[in-house]
C-alpha cells in the first residue's frame, strides 16, 4: 500500500536532519528520504566534531525549550548497551569578575523564568564541583544541574536507526547538485543525473546551507567560521576516573571572562575557545574529501589547528586550572560552525519557494528541539513552540547581503560570551538605514540605538534643558548601574511634554506594505480577526492567528481605497506570510488576484501626539482634523504645508494625534513644516525610551515580547481585537473558544512597590502566598523560598517593563496564573534580589480613553 504522506527530501543527516526525519516519522510522515553527502556514520559536518556541550541558559524562551527537549530526547534514546546519548553531568558557568557574577544572576533568572533548575553558587561549591579550579580566581558560578554532554554522533545514529525502522530511507555518499521548481514550488532534488521527486525539501545542510539555498533563489544568511577545540595530554587527577575515550563526571565548565569552555574527555580535558580572531571559511575553496577519505580525524568541517591563535588561551587555562600545567596540548583542530547576523538559528519555509524549508545554524544544544518544531511546522502548519525569533524570513533584505552577514556574524562570534545589555546596540555596521529626518534628529542631539539596521532615536539631548522646568513628580528615579545603561533621565522630560503639550516621534521604522488588487479585501478578511470588507477610510488593529488560535502577529490595516490596503506589520515575517497567501489566492482564483508590495523604504512616518497636536496641525492645513472630521481609527489623505500625506488617527502612546505618512523624498519637508508650526506650542522630538514608557502605561502590547504564537487573544488582553460581529471564518477561529477555556496564564499588569526599582524583562516572577498584603518574602508553594535565596519555581516571567513617568511607578507585564486578582502581591527576581510588586488594573493611564478618542 503506498505511503499517503507527501514525499519529503531532507538534505543532511547530521543531528538536525536525522532528528527531523525521526520526528516526522513519529507524526506518521514516513515517506521521507534523507540525503547525506558523506558516509552516514561520520557525515563530516559540524555534528561529527561537536564537543556536545548543552547549556540551557538562554534569554529566549523558545531556545530554552528546544534545549530541554534535546536533553529529554537524547536521554531517552538508548543504544544496545542500554545507555542514553546524554551525560547529565550538569553545567557550571564561573565568574572571575564582579560584572560576570551579576550576569550569572541574570542568567539564573532566565532559567527559572522558563522552568529550568538553576542556582548561583559560591566559590567553595564551584571548587567542589570542579576540583581543578583555582579557588582564589573564582567569585561564584551558575549551576544548571540538568545540563550536560550530548553524545551527538551516538544520538544521531540512534535516531537514524529508529527512523529507518519506521520506514524512512537514508542515502549517504550522495551530493545534491540542484533543486527543481515549477510554479514557485519545489518538485525534485537532483543528485547528478538522478532525479528525486519531492513535495517538500528541507535543507539541514549546516554550513553548506547557503549553497543549497542558492539552488532555489533563497538567501540563507549564515557564515561558516572556524572555532578552536583542543585536548590535553593525560591529566593526573583524571587517570582511572572516567570511561575512555570521552567519559565525564564533572560539570561542563564555562570560563566566559576569557571566552573559554572545558569538559572532561576521558583522562584528558577538552578546551574550546571563542577568544581568537574570527576565521571565516570560503565554501568555494573548502578542502573536500571523498566519502571514503572521511574519518573521525579528517573531515570537511575539521580544519588544521592554528597554535598561535590558541597560545594566550592555553596560558589563561593553566592559570584557572593549575593542574593542566603538567600537561600539553595533544591535539587540536579548528571546527566549522555556522553564525548568523543576530546569532540565532534559521528555521522555516522560504518566502520565495513553497515547499522549501530550512533548519540551519542549529547547534547540538537545540538540535532535537528544533527538529521537532520543524516537523510540526511541516505536518501541522505550526509549531507548538514559537518560531518567530528564529524564522528564516525575519531579516530585511539588506541584512542578507554577503557583506552584512559576514561582518555581523564575525562580530557575534567575538561577542558570544560577552555580557550584553538588552538595549546594547551593535557597534558596526551602523548607519545602514536612516529615516529622512536624520539631519533634524542629529541637530537635536539624538542618541541613536539600532534595530534591524535602522537608526532609532532613544532620546534627544536638546530636551535636557526641559528637566529644570519639569515638575518634580515627573522625574526619573535613580537606577542601579545595570538598568542605567542606555537610559537617560531626559526620557522623563519627553514623556512629560508628550502628555502635556505635543511631540513628534519618528515611526518610519515600522514595517509597511500594500496589499492591492480585486482580492485584497477577501485575502485579509480571511487571514485576520477583524472585518476587512469595509469602506475606504477604515483602520483596524487586528491579529494574525495560526490554526490553533495562537497569535502570530498583531497588525494595523488601513483601507486606502477599495483595492488598496496598507498593512503596518511587525517584521519581514508578516510580509512573507501575507505574500505567500496572496500568491496562493491569485493562483486559485485569477479574478481575485492580489499583489503585495513593500513600501517601507520609499515612505516615512511621523507620530504627532499630545493634547496640543490638533493646534499644531490646524496651522498647516485647511483639512478637518476635528474628532468628527477624522474619527479614531480612521484615515484620510490630506495636504500639510504643501506636503501630500496620509493621516491615520492612531496613537501608540495614548494621546490625541495621528500617524502621518508621506513619501521619503518629502519626509524632511514634512518634519520642518510640523516643527515650525509647533514652536509656539512647545513641540519637542521624542525618543523610543519615552515612547515605550507611555505605551506600557496604556497597556499596549508588543508582539514577540508580550505575546507569541504560544498565547491566545483573551489571555493576552487582546480579546477586543477578535471582532464578535465577524461571522465569517478566519484562520484560527475554530480553535479560539477551546484554547481560551484551557488557558491557565494571562498577561498581567504589575507595578513595583518601590518606585526606584526597575526591571528590564525576562525576570522570573513569584506569587506571594495569601494574596494582597502578605509580608514580602513569603512565597507561595509554587515559589517557595525567601527574598533573594535563589530557590523555588517561578510562577511566571516578565515580558515588557519600563518606568511609567506619568504615573510615577515602575511597570512590568508578566505571564502569571489567571487566578490572580488586582491587589495580589508578587515578587520579581532581579539580579538575585526579590522586588515586591502588585497586580494592578490596566490600563494605568487614561482608562476611559478620553485623551485618545476625544
Q: Give start-end ranges of low-pLDDT stretches.
A: 772-790
The share of residues in extended strands comes to 25-35%
Q: What would you call the structural class?
A: alpha+beta
Q: What is the spatial order of strands in the main beta sheet?
A: 6-7-5-15-16-17-14-19-18
Gyration radius, rounded: 28 Å
Give the tags.
26% strand; alpha+beta; 9-stranded mixed beta sheet; single chain; 21 helices; globular; 854 residues
Write up what this structure looks like.
The chain is globular and about 85 Å long. The longest helix has 17 residues, at 572-588. The strands form 8 sheets. Strands 6-7-5-15-16-17-14-19-18 form a 9-stranded mixed beta sheet, sandwiched between helices. A 6-stranded mixed beta sheet has the order 9-2-1-13-21-20. Strands 31-32-33-30-24-34 form a 6-stranded mixed beta sheet. Helix 15 crosses helix 16 (572-588). It is an alpha+beta fold. Strand 27 and strand 28 (564-569) form a beta hairpin.
Amino acid at each position: 500500500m503506498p505511503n499517503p504522506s507527501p514525499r519529503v527530501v531532507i538534505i543532511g543527516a547530521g543531528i538536525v536532519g536525522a532528528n527531523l526525519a525521526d520526528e516526522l516519522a513519529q507524526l506518521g510522515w514516513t515517506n521521507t528520504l534523507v540525503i547525506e553527502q558523506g558516509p552516514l556514520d561520520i557525515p563530516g559536518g559540524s555534528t561529527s566534531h561537536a564537543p556536545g556541550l548543552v547549556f540551557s541558559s538562554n534569554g529566549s524562551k523558545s531556545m530554552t525549550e528546544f534545549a530541554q527537549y534535546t536533553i529529554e530526547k537524547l536521554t531517552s534514546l538508548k543504544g544496545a548497551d542500554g545507555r542514553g546519548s546524554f551525560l547529565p553531568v550538569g553545567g557550571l558557568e564561573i565568574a572571575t569578575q564582579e560584572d560576570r557574577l551579576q550576569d550569572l544572576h541574570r542568567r539564573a533568572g532566565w532559567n527559572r523564568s522558563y522552568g529550568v533548575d538553576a542556582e548561583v553558587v559560591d566559590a567553595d561549591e564551584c571548587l567542589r564541583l570542579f576540583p581543578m579550579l583555582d579557588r582564589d580566581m573564582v567569585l561564584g558560578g551558575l549551576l544548571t544541574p540538568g545540563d550536560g554532554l550530548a553524545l551527538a554522533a551516538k544520538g544521531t545514529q540512534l535516531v537514524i536507526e529508529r527512523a529507518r525502522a519506521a520506514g524512512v530511507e537514508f542515502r549517504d555518499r550522495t551530493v545534491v547538485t540542484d533543486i527543481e521548481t515549477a510554479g514557485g514550488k519545489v518538485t525534485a532534488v537532483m543528485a547528478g543525473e538522478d532525479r528525486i521527486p519531492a513535495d517538500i525539501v528541507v535543507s539541514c545542510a549546516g554550513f553548506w546551507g547557503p549553497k543549497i539555498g542558492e539552488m532555489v533563489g533563497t538567501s540563507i544568511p549564515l557564515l561558516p567560521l572556524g572555532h578552536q577545540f583542543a585536548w590535553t595530554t593525560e591529566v593526573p587527577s583524571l587517570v582511572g576516573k572516567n570511561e575512555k575515550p570521552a567519559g565525564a563526571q564533572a560539570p561542563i565548565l564555562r570560563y566566559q571572562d576569557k571566552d573559554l569552555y572545558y569538559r572532561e574527555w576521558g583522562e584528558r580535558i577538552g578546551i574550546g575557545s571563542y577568544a581568537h580572531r574570527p576565521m571565516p571559511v570560503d565554501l568555494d575553496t573548502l578542502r573536500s574529501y571523498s566519502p571514503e577519505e572521511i574519518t573521525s580525524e579528517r573531515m570537511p568541517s575539521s580544519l588544521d589547528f592554528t597554535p598561535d591563535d590558541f597560545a594566550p588561551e592555553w596560558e589563561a587555562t593553566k592559570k584557572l586550572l593549575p593542574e593542566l600545567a603538567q600537561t600539553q596540548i595533544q591535539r587540536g583542530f579548528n571546527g566549522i560552525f555556522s553564525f548568523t547576523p543576530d546569532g540565532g538559528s534559521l528555521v522555516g519555509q522560504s518566502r520565495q519557494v513553497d515547499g522549501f524549508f530550512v533548519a540551519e545554524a542549529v547547534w547540538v544544544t537545540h538540535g532535537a528541539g528544533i527538529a521537532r518544531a520543524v516537523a510540526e511546522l511541516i505536518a501541522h502548519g505550526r509549531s507548538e513552540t514559537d518560531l518567530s525569533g528564529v524564522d528564516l524570513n525575519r531579516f530585511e533584505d539588506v541584512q542578507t547581503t554577503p557583506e552584512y552577514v559576514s561582518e555581523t556574524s564575525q562580530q557575534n562570534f567575538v561577542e558570544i560570551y560577552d555580557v550584553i545589555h538588552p538595549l546594547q546596540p551593535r557597534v558596526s555596521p551602523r548607519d545602514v538605514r536612516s529615516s529622512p529626518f536624520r539631519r533634524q534628529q542629529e541637530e537635536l542631539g539624538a542618541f541613536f540605538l539600532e534595530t534591524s539596521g535602522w537608526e532609532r532615536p532613544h532620546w534627544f539631548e536638546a530636551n535636557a534643558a526641559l528637566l529644570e522646568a519639569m515638575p518634580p513628580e515627573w522625574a526619573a528615579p535613580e537606577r542601579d548601574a545595570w538598568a542605567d545603561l542606555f537610559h537617560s533621565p531626559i526620557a522623563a522630560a519627553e514623556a512629560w511634554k508628550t502628555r502635556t503639550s505635543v511631540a513628534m516621534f519618528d515611526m518610519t521604522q515600522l514595517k509597511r506594505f500594500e496589499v492591492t488588487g480585486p482580492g485584497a479585501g477577501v485575502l485579509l478578511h480571511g487571514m485576520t480577526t477583524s472585518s476587512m470588507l469595509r469602506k475606504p477610510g477604515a483602520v483596524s488593529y487586528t491579529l494574525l492567528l495560526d490554526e490553533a488560535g495562537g497569535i502570530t502577529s498583531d497588525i494595523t490595516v488601513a483601507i486606502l481605497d477599495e483595492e488598496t490596503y496598507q498593512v503596518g506589520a511587525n517584521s519581514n515575517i508578516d510580509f512573507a506570510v501575507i505574500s505567500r497567501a496572496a500568491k496562493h489566492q491569485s493562483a486559485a482564483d485569477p479574478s481575485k488576484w492580489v499583489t503585495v508590495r513593500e513600501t517601507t523604504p520609499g515612505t516615512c512616518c511621523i507620530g504627532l501626539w499630545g493634547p496640543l497636536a490638533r493646534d499644531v496641525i490646524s496651522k498647516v492645513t485647511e483639512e478637518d482634523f476635528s474628532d468628527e472630521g477624522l474619527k479614531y481609527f480612521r484615515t484620510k489623505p490630506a495636504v500639510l504645508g504643501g506636503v501630500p500625506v496620509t493621516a491615520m488617527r492612531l496613537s501608540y502612546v495614548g494621546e490625541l494625534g495621528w500617524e502621518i505618512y508621506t513619501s521619503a523624498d518629502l519626509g524632511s519637508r514634512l518634519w520642518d513644516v510640523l516643527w515650525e508650526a509647533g514652536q509656539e506650542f512647545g513641540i519637542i522630538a521624542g525618543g523610543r525610551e519615552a515612547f515605550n514608557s507611555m505605551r506600557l502605561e496604556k497597556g499596549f502590547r508588543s508582539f514577540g515580547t508580550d505575546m507569541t504564537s504560544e498565547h491566545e487573544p483573551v489571555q493576552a488582553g487582546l480579546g477586543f481585537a477578535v471582532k464578535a460581529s465577524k461571522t465569517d471564518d478566519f484562520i484560527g477561529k475554530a480553535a479560539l473558544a477551546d484554547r481560551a477555556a484551557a488557558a491557565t496564564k494571562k498577561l498581567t499588569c504589575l507595578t513595583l512597590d518601590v518606585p526606584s526599582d526597575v526591571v528590564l524583562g525576562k525576570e522570573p516572577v513569584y506569587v506571594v502566598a495569601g494574596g494582597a498584603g502578605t509580608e514580602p518574602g513569603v512565597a507561595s508553594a509554587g515559589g517557595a523560598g525567601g527574598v533573594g535565596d535563589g530557590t523555588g519555581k517561578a510562577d511566571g516571567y516578565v515580558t515588557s517593563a519600563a518606568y511609567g513617568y506619568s504615573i510615577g511607578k515602575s511597570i512590568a507585564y508578566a505571564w502569571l496564573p489567571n487566578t490572580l486578582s488586582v491587589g495580589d502581591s508578587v515578587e520579581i527576581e532581579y539580579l538575585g534580589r526579590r522586588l515586591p510588586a502588585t497586580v494592578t488594573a490596566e490600563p494605568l493611564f487614561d482608562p476611559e480613553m478620553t485623551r485618545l478618542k476625544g
